[in-house]
Amino acid sequence: MTAEAYFDSNNLVDSASFKRALRSVAGAVSIVTSGSYPSRHGLTVTAACSLSIEPSTVLVCINKSAGAHDTIVRTRSFGWNLLSSCHVPLAQKFAGLDGSKGDIRFVDEEWYSLRTGAPILIGALCSFDCSVIGVHPTGTHTVFVGAVLAEQHRDDLEPLVYRHGQFAVPASLDPAGTEKAT
User: What whole-number distance in Å separates Cα of residue 126 and Cα of residue 121?
Assistant: First the structure.
């Protein structure tokens, strides 16, 4: 049963109003990747998050029209790469702002693989290599649940966020989660 079966779409807020409201929500900027050379695909997303610590799982929401969508379905794996403040040009490229698609998006940075073969960004804030264990189509997107098979992370970088159509760096926090004195 899909999510659409649980609600009456006639009672929902209109999509234009919903989109305007969502622009107020700050989200971590990520690149979700799939496939292997020369058929790699990836896109910039803010709709991704951890799902469970035990078992280690995450979820990513991918538009059904994105090139990465069908590659994730076919390979049953994906990489979730959270970007740092230095990755604005890369986020723009993977958002398609330069018109590029497919494997050409990967040429400006260094990528490697951990376990599944999905592209993992060298220098990312953190990356998760995931095997798909759940697929939930809803409206224009599919929610992919991934079991985390491997990860890499760095504590010395500032995260990149997106809000009101702009990339930004939030106030600095130390790795312990307490604000730095200014």
Answer: 9
Measured between alpha carbons, how far is residue 54 from residues 25, 50, 62, 147, 181 in Å? Answer: 27, 11, 24, 10, 34
CB burial of 116-135 (b: ≥16 within 10 Å; e: otherwise) equals bbbbbbebbbbbbbbbbeee
pTM of the model: 0.88
Sign of torsion, CA 145 50 72 36? negative
The residue with tokens 């009456």 is 8
Alpha-carbon span 93 to 89, nearest angstrom: 6
* Segments of the chain with pLDDT less than 50: 1, 181-182
- Give me the residues paired with residue 121 across strands: 111
Alpha-carbon span 69 to 22, nearest angstrom: 22
User: For 2-16, how does the pLDDT look when each residue is reduced to its tens digit (9 = 90+)?
Assistant: 555 566 778 888 889
Select from 29, 142, 15 the least CA-distant residue to 84: 29
Residue from 161, 135, 2, 162 nearest 69 by CA: 135
